[in-house]
Amino acid sequence: MVFKGLDDTSSPPVVLDGRASDIQNIILDNTGTATKRYGYSFEVMLDTNDVSDAFNATTSLYELVKSNGITTRIATTASKLFAWSLGNKTDITSGVTITPNDNYLWNWITAFDYAIGTNGVDPPIQTNGTTTSTFNFTGLTATSVPTKAKCVIFWKNYLVFGNTYENSVARTTRIRWSNVGTISTWSDDDYQDIATLGGQQIEGFGTIYDDLYIFLTDSIYKVSLTGGDALITVTKVSEGIGAVSRNNIKSISIGNTEGLIFLTRDKTINYLDGVKVQEISSNIDGVMDDLSQTRLKYASAIVDRGTSHYYLSVTSGTGSTNNQILDFNYGIGEWSKHKGVNANAFCIANDANEVSQVYFGDYDSFIFQMSDPDLNSDVAGETGVFDSSSIIDTTTASGLVVLYDTSADFTDVTGATVTITSGTGIDEESVIASTTSSGIVVVGNLTATTNSGYSIGSVEAYYTTKWYDFGSSPQRKNYGELFLWATTDTSATMQIFSATDFSSTIASTDVTLNADGSLWGTAIWGNSTWGGTSTSLSRIPLSQSGRFIKYRFSESSIDEPMELYGYSTIYWPGDYF
User: Which label site among 44, 159, 307, 420 has the fewest CB atoms less than 10 Å from its CB?
Assistant: First the structure.
């Protein structure tokens, strides 16, 4: 049996074989493999010694790519705009207004070698990666100048702002565009209002081929360029469904087709092919129902075209910040979810080797590469018990908690999250701001003290299967063995749990996947493994009986991988009574 995505919507008898009833920190691909996600690696911390800057959230990330090939990564946090690279940041704010607020997310586009940004609160700004200024609407009279705008896009050589604020009046359904081929010249009459005073507002833009799509709260419009006296035509594509915010509207390509994925205020994720809208989140209704309604508008997304994944950072439960990643592999139409990646902003940018990577910014001014193949823990993995605690000042903040463990090596844990696992402060978490020779300095006010146990960087991954009846629900089965096919690129110890007939877990097994020995070498039966340089087939005794059975494959140890290819059950039919 291969590994497919989450289905928490269907009733147990009709869930497709291979689907998961629960899943966390698992990457799915088109081969049917389930892989524990790689850890994220630390890039840079944006916090400074400015008195108004205190480990604020990263509110945008963007890569400006100029026509001469020069690239600059930019980021906003608090009232600052930075150019950043691995281990470095440069303040390029240059006096523009950026209102500090974790939820004032910036939206960036590139036009004529400038990054142009809006956040719906402050005046639009532009930067070439070195100098920054308030955007200048040359040619507009004072009453027509947008003093703020919710969204912006560069389309068909026109710079277009949407949901503007002009002459102290909110023009929530207005689009205003530049003269063609320039961002410097504007005309008062170049605007159009869509569904004025209809109880909706423009939430964001997207493009499919040559057409611009405008997402309102509960409708979608298509804008086509026609030329002549009527420069554009606007037609309605969808009524009753729209986007909840601009930062989750993303373009994807499936084969030779393009489309847009977006989140609605009704807690559904949908796909627009240019003509019709189709829900793609119907298999994860349980996850969607648990999302915070009030924080849907702060959800952020990114598309990794290299792996065909759409990542959506959302707030689950009663959280006040994004605390979950919904992961849609649109190449195979399957869902997973991730924990521990608390992303407020995303971007796609090339690393030092010119390889495209996903980067994210968290709620404490840290920026990370989201998936580092060299890491099986987030930033770095450490476990232990703290010896003592105190208060310390750093170069950017004062009065921070420092926790000591003289037996640990903390040289590489800056940016990682520490979790208190036992003793005082159990279950508390905080990001590590810096380190001392034998201690970690944390952003939050942890209460951990002497003899508090801790874990740093752990990635808790698990895959829980559906309930299997093997084609006959009434019949009892005697379950003999589970065969698990997995990679052995790195020696890993994982756990397998099993349960029958909708009961809680009643059996668990530690499985060591051996990395040595020749592939399909000498088979030692019993509880052992067929070891090989790339794969191993483990034979796990079950000794259980029931009408249904399910499994949970789990790996939560620091620095340990898990990559599963498939599984199969050996059973013997029993009685019906």
Answer: 307
- Quote the CA–CA distance of 496 and 509 in Å, as a whole number: 5
Query: 19-55: per-residue pLDDT in tens?
Result: 999 999 999 999 999 999 999 999 999 988 765 668 9
How many CB atoms are located within 10 Å of the residue 193 CB? 13
C-alpha 29 chain-centroid distance: 17
Q: Among all chains, which residue has been given the structure tokens 């289905």? A: 7
- The answer to the question of residue 319 being in a domain is no
Domain boundary among 238, 254, 277: 277
For residue 254, what pLDDT band results from cuts at 50, 70 and 90? confident
| Integer Cα distance of 414 and 434 in angstroms | 5
Q: Is residue 48 part of a domain?
A: yes
Cα angle, residue 23 at apex, residues 253 and 412 outer, rounded to 5°: 90
Domain residue limits at 30: 12-37+460-573
Do 234 and 87 share a structural domain? Answer: yes
CB-based contact 414:432 (threshold 8 Å): yes
**Cα radius of gyration rounded to whole Å, the chain:** 26
Amino acid (1-letter code) at residue 233: T
Q: Which residues of 358-382 are buried (b: 16+ CB within 10 A; e: fewer)?
A: bbbbbbbbbbbbbbbeebbbbbbbb
Contact assessment for residue 358 and residue 364, using Cβ atoms and an 8 Å cutoff: no
What pTM did the predictor assign? 0.94
Give the three-state DSSP class for 368. strand
Clarify whether residues 397 and 489 are in a common domain: no
List helix spans (H) across 277-383: 285-289
The stretch 335-349 carries a mean pLDDT of: 98
Within a domain: residue 344?
no
Spatial strand order in the sheet of 34-36:
26-28, 34-36, 563-573, 477-487, 535-546, 529-530
407 and 272 in a single domain? The answer is no
Partners of 26 in the β-ladder: 36
Query: How many domains in the chain?
Result: 3
Which tokens hold the place of 148?
């703020």
475 plus 414 within the same structural domain: no
Contact 460, 339 (CB under 8 A): yes
